[in-house]
Amino acid sequence: MKLMKLMKLMKITASVMLMRVCRVLSCQQTEYEISGRCCSMCPPGSRVQRDCTEFTTTSCVPCVEGTYNEKYNGVRNCAHCSLCSGLKVKLECTLTSDSVCEPQDGFFCLDWSSKSCGAAQKHSSCEGGQYISQRGTASTDTECSDCSTGTFSDGTGMSCQPHTQCEAENLQLIEAGTSSADARCGEQRQNVSGIVIGVLVPVVLIVGAAAVCECVCEWVNGSVTVKRFGPSKEGRKRYTSIQHLHAQSGGCVTAGWVGAHTQVHPVHYITDTHAHLHLSVLILYCMCWVIVFCLVCFCSPSTC
Questions:
Q1: Higher local confidence (pLDDT), 42 or 223
Q2: Which CATH superfamily is domain 130-187 in?
Q3: Which of 59, 140, 217, 242 is most buried (most C-beta within 10 Å)?
Q4: Boundaries of every domain in the chain
Q5: What are phi and psi of 106, to 5 degrees?
Q6: 8 A C-beta contact, residue 166 and residue 154
Q7: Kind and range of the H or E element at 256?
């Protein structure tokens, strides 16, 4: 008897559960089940304020600013709009759609969720000696490639440029090009050492020779003035040339000979000639230094 009652109770329970399942399955696509009944969903942009009852329909209210609901729903709260932190807002949040974020210029997205970007990273920069083989986009990073031999790039261009050929432009190579910098050219410099040697040296030799010739001529043809001792009123006696003195002295003009044979002061005729010789040597010495200085400055300007 007890067994029959227990079986009857189980039957009733199963029937109730089956009825509930059938009732859930019978809710429409725009309805939601709550407390064993189907209630109408709230439209996009709104939320449920009160569920339906046997006598009333579902009560809905719009989402507040900063929240949204994209679909028909039976929820009590709207979703919060996404904040595009460190990103750029592509589409503003509305009551029916979330914000759409995208990377800022010069960045690419690391995390795409649906149509919006969650995090971004700055595009890589190419180094000197590389060129941009593929520009970065909002979804991909920049791609770099190395320059080939004889070309250069500072890392900002889409291709490497050939080094300037200085000789082809009638210029002189000052600094060879590298993978990151162009060759440096300057004005073509003539063979200055040849010019200096070919022009200045003859000038120096001519000037020096002229100075020596002048001294020799004064030595050979120069006149000497001597002053007598004693009461003679002649005052000064003038010999016409150095040869005259040499002839009188037998080729040996000394202060003692002049004093013994001419009764005059010792002669200082050599003084002027020596002064001219010293001046000539000084001129030649200075000109030699000028030549050396010019050669150094023209051939290696950095040392001047």
A1: 42
A2: Tumor Necrosis Factor Receptor, subunit A, domain 2 (2.10.50.10)
A3: 242
A4: 88-122, 130-187, 192-303
A5: 90, 5
A6: no
A7: helix 255-261
